[in-house]
Recover the amino acids of this structure.
C-alpha cells in the first residue's frame, strides 16, 4: 500500500479554528460560567471601592485622596483579577473536557492534536476580552478616571492579551493535571490571590519586610505596575520589560507543560 | 501488502503489577467482522486502545490497515474509526453539530460535509433530534450518534468497543442492523463484546479472551463444536418411570432430584426421531422433553474456566 501523503498532512490552523468554534459554542450554550467569571472581579471592585476605598485611599495620600484616588489605584489590580478569574474558568473547562469521551475520540483521529488545546486557549482569550471590556466599563462607571491616550489604551489592550495568553496556557496545564473539576477550580487559586500579595491593592512599601520582598519580586507586581503606568500615564520604568519577560516565561512553561500532558499516555 | 486489516503478534501490556495482555496474537482479514469476546477485565478495551493508537503495548507489535501502530500511528489514525465503550460524543453540542465537528476535522468541504451530515442523520434515524443537545439523547441515540461520527471519515477499519453494552434489546438490534450494513460496504470491523449472542449474530470469527490471553478462536460453529453439551432432557412423572427409562436407554446421565435424564444428542431431527421411537417402543411415558444445543455461553464458560457448564 502506498502512503498518500496528502491524506497524512496536518492542518493545525484549520483544526484549531474548528476546536475554537466548539469551545465558543460551549460558552454560548452555558453562559452561567462566563457570567460568574465576570461577576467576581466586579464584586471585588465594588467591595474595595465602596467598603475599603475611603480609608485605603486616604492612606495613599494623593492630591484628591480618599475613594476617588483609590478607584484609580485599584482598577489595574481588578483588571488583572478579571484575567485570573477567566483562567480559573479555563482550568475548569479543560478539566471537564478531558473527562469527556470525545477527547479520547480526538486522540484516535488524524488531527493536529495541539488544536484541542489551542481551541481552549483562543476561546479563553476571547472570553477574557469580553470580561475585561465589561469590568473596565463598570470601573469607569464607579469613578475610574484613566489618563491614557489612544496609544496607551491600544498598548494596554495588547499587553493584556499577552498576559492573558500566557496565563491561559498555564491554566490549560493546570486543568489537565487536575483529576477532578474541584481540583481544577482550586489549583489556580494562588493566581487569584497573587494580586493581593503585590502592589495590587496597597503599595508594597506599606508591607512588612519579608512580604514586601515577595511582593516586589512576584510576577504580578510588574504586570500591575505596567497597567497602572499605561492607564494613568505614568513612567513605566523597567516594569513593562519585566512583565513581558514573565509573560513569555509563563507562556512557554504553560505551553510545553500542556503539550506534554496532552500527549502523555493515559493509564488504563 | 497483506490481506490482513489487523494483525498483532505477542501483544503485552501491564498496568503496574497487573498483567492485562499476556502475549496476544490476532489476525483479522480485510472486510470481515472479528469479535473479541471476554468478561469485564479480560483485556478487550486495552486491546482496542493499543490497536487504535491510544496507548502503546509493552511488548509485541501490531499493524492496522497495513501500518505499524507504533511507528506509523498517524497513518493508522487516518484509516480507522473508533466507537468506544463510553460515548465519545460532545454532550454540550447538538447531534448535527457533533457530526459537523467531525466533518470539519476530516477537512471535508462545506457542501460535502453538509451532505454527509444530513445523510448520516437520516441513516441513523437522528434527523428529528439533530438540533437537540446530545446530553438529552437516550443511550441508544448516543451510540448511534457516536457511530455516525466515526463513519464521517469513511474509515477502512472500525473498532467497536462494546457497542451495545447498556442498551435495551430494541436499540441493540438496531445497532446490529447498522453493523451488518457496514460490513456490506466492505469495511473491516473489530468488535468487542461480552454478549455471546452479539458475537454469534455479527462476527465471522470469534476469539475468546481470558486474562489477557486468547483461549479459543474460530467461527461460532467451530467454537460450539469444541465442547460437548448437546443433549435432550427428559423429565418423568415419578421415580419408577425414571428408573425404567434409564435402564432402557443405556448411556445417559440421570438427575434423580429433578426426575430427569440427559440423553447426549446433537439435537438434530433424525436423532430426535430415533429417540422418540425408542421411547415409544419401550412404552416409556415422558412428561416433558427439551432439546439443548450448546450455545456460545457453554463455550465461553467452559473455555474461561467457570465451571457452570453442564456436562453429561
Amino acid at each position: 500500500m502506498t502512503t498518500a501523503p496528502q491524506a497524512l498532512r496536518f492542518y493545525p490552523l484549520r483544526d484549531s479554528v474548528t476546536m475554537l468554534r466548539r469551545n465558543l459554542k460551549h460558552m454560548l450554550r452555558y453562559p452561567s460560567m462566563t457570567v460568574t467569571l465576570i461577576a467576581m472581579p466586579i464584586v471585588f471592585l465594588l467591595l474595595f471601592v465602596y467598603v475599603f476605598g475611603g480609608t485605603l485611599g486616604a492612606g495613599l495620600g494623593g492630591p484628591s485622596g480618599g475613594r476617588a484616588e483609590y478607584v484609580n489605584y485599584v482598577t489595574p489590580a481588578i483588571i488583572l483579577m478579571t484575567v485570573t478569574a477567566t483562567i480559573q474558568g479555563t482550568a475548569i473547562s479543560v478539566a471537564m473536557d478531558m473527562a469527556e469521551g470525545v477527547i479520547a475520540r480526538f486522540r484516535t483521529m488524524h488531527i493536529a492534536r495541539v488544536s484541542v488545546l489551542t481551541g481552549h486557549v483562543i476561546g479563553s482569550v476571547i472570553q477574557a476580552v469580553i470580561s475585561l471590556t465589561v469590568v473596565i466599563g463598570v470601573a469607569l462607571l464607579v469613578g475610574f478616571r484613566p489618563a491614557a491616550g489612544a496609544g496607551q489604551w491600544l498598548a494596554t489592550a495588547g499587553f493584556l492579551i499577552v498576559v492573558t495568553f500566557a496565563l491561559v496556557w498555564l491554566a490549560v496545564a493546570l486543568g489537565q493535571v487536575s483529576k477532578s473539576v474541584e481540583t481544577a477550580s482550586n489549583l489556580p487559586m494562588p493566581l487569584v490571590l497573587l494580586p493581593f500579595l503585590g502592589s495590587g491593592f496597597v503599595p508594597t512599601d506599606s508591607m512588612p519586610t519579608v512580604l514586601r520582598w515577595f511582593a516586589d519580586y512576584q510576577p504580578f507586581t510588574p504586570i500591575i505596575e505596567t497597567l497602572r503606568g499605561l492607564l494613568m500615564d505614568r513612567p513605566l520604568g523597567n516594569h513593562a520589560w519585566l512583565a513581558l519577560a514573565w509573560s513569555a516565561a509563563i507562556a512557554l512553561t504553560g505551553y510545553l507543560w500542556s503539550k506534554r500532558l496532552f500527549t502523555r499516555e493515559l493509564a488504563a | 501488502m497483506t490481506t490482513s486489516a489487523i494483525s498483532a503478534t505477542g501483544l503485552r501490556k501491564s498496568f503496574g503489577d497487573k498483567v492485562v495482555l499476556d502475549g496476544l496474537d490476532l489476525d483479522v482479514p480485510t472486510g470481515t467482522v472479528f469479535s473479541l469476546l471476554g468478561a469485564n477485565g479480560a483485556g478487550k478495551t486495552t486491546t482496542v486502545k493499543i490497536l487504535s493508537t491510544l496507548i502503546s503495548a509493552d511488548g509485541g507489535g501490531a499493524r492496522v490497515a497495513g501500518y505499524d501502530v507504533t511507528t506509523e500511528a498517524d497513518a493508522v489514525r487516518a484509516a480507522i474509526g473508533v466507537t468506544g465503550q463510553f460515548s465519545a460524543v460532545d454532550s454540550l453540542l447538538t447531534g448535527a453539530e457533533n457530526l459537523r465537528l467531525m466533518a470539519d476535522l476530516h477537512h471535508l468541504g462545506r457542501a460535502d460535509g453538509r451532505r454527509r451530515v444530513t445523510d448520516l442523520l437520516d441513516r441513523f434515524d437522528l434527523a428529528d433530534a439533530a438540533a437537540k443537545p446530545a446530553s438529552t439523547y437516550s443511550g441508544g441515540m448516543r451510540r448511534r450518534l457516536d457511530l455516525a461520527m466515526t463513519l464521517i471519515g469513511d474509515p477502512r477499519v472500525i473498532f467497536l468497543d462494546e457497542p451495545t453494552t447498556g442498551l435495551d434489546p430494541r436499540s441493540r438490534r438496531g445497532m446490529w442492523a447498522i453493523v451488518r450494513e457496514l460490513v456490506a460496504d466492505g469495511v473491516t470491523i473489530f468488535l468487542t463484546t461480552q454478549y455471546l449472542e452479539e458475537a454469534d449474530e455479527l462476527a465471522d470469527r470469534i476469539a475468546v479472551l481470558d486474562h489477557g490471553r486468547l483461549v479459543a478462536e474460530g467461527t461460532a460453529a467451530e467454537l460450539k463444536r469444541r465442547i460437548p453439551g448437546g443433549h435432550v432432557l427428559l423429565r418423568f412423572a415419578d421415580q419408577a418411570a425414571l428408573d425404567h427409562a434409564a435402564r432402557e436407554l443405556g448411556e445417559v446421565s440421570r438427575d434423580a432430584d429433578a426426575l430427569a435424564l440427559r440423553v447426549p444428542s446433537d439435537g438434530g431431527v433424525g436423532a430426535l426421531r430415533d429417540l422418540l421411537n425408542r421411547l415409544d417402543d419401550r412404552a416409556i411415558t415422558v412428561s416433558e422433553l427439551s432439546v439443548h444445543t450448546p450455545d456460545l455461553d457453554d463455550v465461553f464458560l467452559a473455555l474461561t474456566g467457570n465451571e457452570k457448564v453442564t456436562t453429561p
